[in-house]
Amino acid sequence: MNVPEPTLRRLPWYLSNLKLLKQRGAAHVSSTQISKDINIDASQIAKDLSFVNISGRTRVGYEVDTLIAALEDFLGFTALHKAFLFGVGSLGGALLRDSGLKHFGLEIVAAFDVKPSLVGTSIEGIPIFHTDELAQRMSQYHVPIGVLTVPIEIAQEITDKMVEGGIKAVWNFTPFRIRVPQDIVVQNTSLYAHLAVMFNRLSTIDRKP
Amino acid sequence: MNVPEPTLRRLPWYLSNLKLLKQRGAAHVSSTQISKDINIDASQIAKDLSFVNISGRTRVGYEVDTLIAALEDFLGFTALHKAFLFGVGSLGGALLRDSGLKHFGLEIVAAFDVKPSLVGTSIEGIPIFHTDELAQRMSQYHVPIGVLTVPIEIAQEITDKMVEGGIKAVWNFTPFRIRVPQDIVVQNTSLYAHLAVMFNRLSTIDRKP
């Protein structure tokens, strides 16, 4: 089911709120309660949760444990999705060291670069191969996801290689707008675009009297 | 000027495209050319660029060098914005090691945590202080931005401390929906929400015949 992106972006908010409520000892929760905590309309929350296959009971609400498990499963955080990372620069290396991704369902099993000083080494146990070895490693690992952290000059070229190699989804951290065939998923996460938005908002409040 | 967020998110795409064109030796570029490269309507590009204080000339187009400089300046990438980072866990540590942020205008000058094994140490030359020292360090550094990479249980508490300490903008990497006073800027960058969207899209194409 193709769930609307705004819903998919809000569901992790509910999940983290539920985890917090659980820690505080709550066994049941209503969408009204979640609404108060995170400042989103209760009707919106109920609508979003209707995509997840679980229903609340009148007056009692949702069971916290059940809803947490259902959300984690629905969001894909309980299955491990294998990924290759391309470009072991500053950000790429940082992502290889971020073990948190694994808790949310992403397991980077190998990385690729062309730098002789990197190829053949590993970071946090994740081996770094030469980009030319992609086809060979693909047949070994069968990986659906590619994390793109290369310089912009080669972002498109590496994307093309990924797709040719069988990658089905590209998590694009570069500020470059990559092009892919229609059946390939692209998720753009440009930290720099987010920085630009933040800087602009900051300069706007700075100028207020 | 409060520039629309979609515009602010697209401008870095144009910037990276321009840098690429420059590398390839282009001196002038039209919005039509950029449009072909990155698959966005030329009229949309011209409209977005109208926020930046620069104009193209009929037939000749924009000067590549001038437009790059104007965009970098407009997006806030040329000024260094100082930031504190809160929570030196897996992701926090990774961000401290990502020197790329500096090239886009963000300089993390200090980090805060409560772990005795971390406090007093440093990562890439960035000192790690105890969270209790925030007020003291704030008067020393005068920092407008706080990067939030703490566990969700303390996300709101640390946010409140930041705001109390004088932070004007919070870059929130947690999946928690934090609350702030109206004049505080929040930029949410939840990698996990992006993962959820990608996983869902991936499972949808997997199920296609």
Please provide a written account of the structure:
The structure is a homodimer of 209-residue chains. With 209 residues, the first copy, chain A, is α/β, with parallel strands linked by helices. Chain A has two domains: 5-74, Arc Repressor Mutant, subunit A, CATH 1.10.10; 81-193, Rossmann fold. Chain A is 45% helix and 18% strand. Chain A has helices at residues 5-23, 31-38, 42-51, 64-74, 90-97, 100-103, 134-141, 155-165, 191-206; strands at 28-29, 62-63, 81-86, 106-113, 122-123, 126-130, 145-148, 169-172, 185-188. Chain A has a seven-stranded mixed sheet. A two-stranded antiparallel ribbon of chain A has the order 1-2. Chain A is globular and about 60 Å long. The model of chain A has no long low-confidence stretch (mean pLDDT 91). At the A-B interface, helix 1, helix 5 and helix 9 of A face helix 1, helix 5 and helix 9 of B.
Specify the structural class of chain A.
alpha/beta
| Gap between N and C termini of chain A | 49 Å
Please outline the major beta sheet of chain A: 7 strands, mixed
Number of helices of chain A: 9
Order of helices and strands of chain A: HEHHEHEHHEEEHEHEEH
Which chain pair has the greatest contact?
A-B, 71 and 71 residues
Averaging pLDDT over every residue of chain A, what do you get? Answer: 91
Beta strands of chain A, count:
9
CATH superfamily membership of the largest domain in chain A: NAD(P)-binding Rossmann-like Domain
Name given to the CATH architecture of the largest domain in chain A: 3-Layer(aba) Sandwich
Strand content range of chain A:
15-25%
The radius of gyration of chain A is 20 Å
- What strand order characterises the main sheet of chain A? 5-6-4-3-7-8-9
Helix content of chain A: 40-55%
Say what the CATH topology of the largest domain in chain A is.
Rossmann fold
Could you name the ranges of chain A where pLDDT drops below 50 across 5 or more consecutive residues?
Answer: none
What kind of assembly state do the chains in view correspond to?
A: homodimer
Our count of domains of chain A comes out at 2
